[in-house]
Amino acid sequence: MVKPTLVTNSIRSRREEAGITQADLAGRIGVTRQTLIAIEQGRYSPTLELAFQIARAFEVGIDDLFQYPED
Amino acid sequence: MVYTERNTWSTLIAAAVIIPGYIVVVLQQAAGGPLTSVDWFPIMLWAIGISIAATIVLSILWGIVAGLRDPKGATTTDVRDRDIDQMGGRVEHSLLVIAGLGVIALCAVGADVFWIANAMFLGFAISTLIGSIARIIAYRRGLI
User: Fold this and answer.
1) pTM of the predicted model, to two decimals?
2) Is the CB of residue B51 less than 8 Å from the CB of residue B124?
3) By CA distance, what is A4's nearest residue in B?
4) How many CB pairs (< 8 A) connect A and B?
5) What are residue A66's phi and psi, to 5 degrees?
6) Which residues, in sequence order, are bridge partners of residue A44?
7) Cβ count within 10 A of residue A41
8) A44 CB within 8 Å of a chain B CB
9) H or E segment at A67?
10) What is d(CA B81, CA B98) in angstroms, rounded to the nearest whole number?
11) Which of A69, B55, B58, B96 could form a disulfide with B14 if both were Cys (CB 3.0 to 4.6 A apart)?
């Protein structure tokens, strides 16, 4: 069983609000659609570089897109 | 399914068929007698050759089918594929170390060359099998 990450994200809701498909966003940030799906579902923690690329695609800060719980 | 996951499945399927196939052929050749009397080397070479060829053919055929459905994404890889491949590689290496230690132990006790060669062969085969399974689990269940 894979240990779930504590990092959550709001990529899916942001993407749906913006009317962008998974394929479009994946193409913009240079990953496969499967990788984007895995990130949205919390099954893959993106690298810092990829996280910045996703945030930049939505023109928001990285903190607006990824959340980490307080202690 | 992405390019590298398809290739992993091809490797897994080939290994899952070839390993039992090799064991069955060696046991048949022994015909109830001592395994050390079996002429194992040509059987092993055939198993290695068929395994490599089957993996390549399966990957190509699967790639053609995937390319017909999604021409752009058929051979695309990204950072997640590399992360998963590295994780699978670590699993393989750890098993190869165990196999290597087993071979040293067999040499130390003066085991027949049959057991030494087959311990290393099965080490390669099983590490490939388990490494592929680890990669598939990471693709399906996640890599955190």
Assistant:
1) 0.86
2) no
3) B144
4) 51
5) -115, 135
6) B143
7) 12
8) yes
9) strand A66-67
10) 26
11) B55
